[in-house]
Every structure is written in structure tokens, then in C-alpha cells.
Amino acid sequence: MATRFDPFQEMDRVLAQVLASDRASATMPMDLYRDGDHYVLHVDLPGADPGTIDVSVDDRTLTIRAQRSPRTEHDVQWLAKERPVGTYARQLTVGRGLALDRISATYNDGVLTLTVPVAEEARPRRVEIQHGAPATPIEAPATAG
Fold first, then answer.
1. Domain range spanning residue 61?
2. 70 in helix, strand or coil?
3. CB burial class (10 A; 0-12, 13-18, 19+) of residue 45?
4. Predicted confidence band at 31 (pLDDT cuts at 50, 70, 90)?
5. Is 57 within the bounds of a domain?
């Protein structure tokens, strides 16, 4: 049985691969949740060289950068090359009430984990109510007259 070759279908497939690869390199999937007095952010960075990962804070903007280097095999015929390469970044604008000077970061198994503590002044607290003798009224000073 003969197979008909459709050059437009093949071009469409190749273009879809290229666009999907570019889109994938521009994103860093993440999970974010609050655990008590900390926010925890998990960012997927598979294949990133740990030495290229950079986390910085400028005012209220948290920036994460990483680089995935291309494979350098020579004299090979690639059959599929879908893994994105290059430098990619993600910026998050964070609200007030976080201790940005105390962020901790770990990188394990291709996942960058940032732990951001809630600032002391932003933590919920209870106000203690004093019990005791009733308050004495304050009298206004007498006026001369």
C-alpha cells in the first residue's frame, strides 16, 4: 500500500514542534501555597545547570532565571529535538508583608523550592483583653469662672 506524502502536513507538524518548544522555554511551571507563616514556591527547572539559577529581589519583584544548555553531540542525526534550551526567566510581583530578606532556596531533582517567610508585622496575632476593676471616669478640669 502506497503512502501519500503531504508536504503541508509535514510543515505543519514541524512548525507546531518549533512553536511548542519556544513556548515551553518561556515558561516555568510553578506551585505556590502558604504553610503557616511561610509561602512555599516550587518551580520546575528540569535540566537546568544549578550554577546558572539566579533568584533576585528588586523592590517587590521576585525574579527567577535559569539556563538550560544545548546538547553538544557532534556528527549525529537528530530524530527529535523537543527539549527547550537557552535562558529563561519568570518574574512575580509580591505583596507587602513578606520577609524578602529571609528567602531560602533549594534545588533538588530539577525543582527549585523557595520558602518566603511572612514578615513579623504581617502575622496574625491576638489582642489580650484585660479583666479587672471598671474603668474610672475621667473628669474634666474645672474652669475658672
1. 28-70+85-121
2. coil
3. buried
4. very high
5. yes
> Rounded to whole angstroms, how far apart are CA atoms 67 and 95?
27
Q: What is the CATH number of the domain that holds 92?
A: 2.60.40.790
Question: What residues have CB less than 8 Å from 10, skipping those under 6 apart?
Answer: none
Structurally, how many domains does the chain consist of? 1
Task: Give the whole-angstrom CA distance, residue 25 versus residue 14.
Answer: 17
pLDDT digits (tens, 9 = 90+) for 41-61: 999 998 888 999 999 999 889
For residue 45, tell me if it sits in a domain.
yes
Q: Which residues contact 139 (CB under 8 A, 6 or more apart)?
A: none
- Read off the pTM: 0.65
Averaged confidence pLDDT in the chain: 80
Output phi, psi for 8, to 5 deg: -70, -35
pLDDT digits (tens, 9 = 90+) for 75-110: 888 888 888 888 889 999 988 888 889 999 999 999
Grid cell 510581583 in the structure block, residue: 93
